[in-house]
Specification:
The protein contains 7 helices and no strands. By secondary structure, it is mostly helical. The protein has 2 domains: about 80 residues, no CATH class; about 90 residues, Histone, subunit A. Helix 1 runs antiparallel to helix 2 and helix 5 packs across helix 6. The longest helix has 27 residues. It starts with 6 loop residues before the first helix and ends in a 14-residue tail after the last helix. About 10% of the residues are buried. About 15% of the residues have low confidence. One of its GO terms (molecular function) is protein heterodimerization activity.
Length: about 170
């Protein structure tokens, strides 16, 4: 059985010298809003998102708290909003019923949780890419629809958006 490295140990053990190429950190360690940003912190959070290790080690919870405690007020606000956000079960239920053809699905069906989780991850990726688009264009403020469209286009080019299996009949 292959043993994956723990994301917290890897994140803390690495050197924190430069920003990854797609990081929302500009040269000089400045964030989107012009505030100082710890490049290593952003790298650690990114690694935690993409970790394949699904086991929870209770000894690492303090390490996670120390990483989160380094967030700026704006970063913490965004993180809390992301954690609290959910997609409505009724909408996910309608989507899943239209895809699978199963009618009268229960609200506590585990498939609803899976679809909601995947959709939330996709929205998170879309927003993260939109922020990168804003940094590349040297824009600040809120994410606008043009940023979302460009983000979707980029994700589609990377193959992260599924293609239609059945062609459209009408346009």
């Amino acid at each position: 059985m292959k043993r994956y490295k723990n994301p917290f140990e890897t994140a803390i053990g690495e050197e924190q010298d430069e920003s990854p190429p797609d990081s929302p950190v500009c040269d000089g360690g400045r964030g989107i809003d012009g505030s100082d940003v710890d490049v290593g912190l952003l790298r650690q959070v990114k690694k935690l998102k993409t970790s394949e290790n699904m086991e929870v080690d209770l000894a690492l919870i303090p390490t996670m708290h120390s990483i989160i405690s380094q967030f700026t007020e704006e970063q913490m606000s965004r993180y809390e909003c992301f954690r609290r956000s959910t997609l409505h079960k009724t909408n996910m239920k309608k989507l899943l019923e239209s895809i699978t053809g199963i009618k009268n699905m229960n609200n506590d069906d585990p498939r609803l949780s899976v679809v909601s989780g995947i959709a939330k991850m996709f929205v998170g990726e879309l927003v993260e890419t939109a922020r990168l688009v804003m940094v590349k264009r040297n824009e600040t403020g809120h994410i606008r629809p043009c940023h979302i469209r460009e983000s979707y286009r980029r994700l589609k080019l990377q193959g992260k958006v599924p293609q239609r299996t059945v062609p459209r009949l009408f346009r």
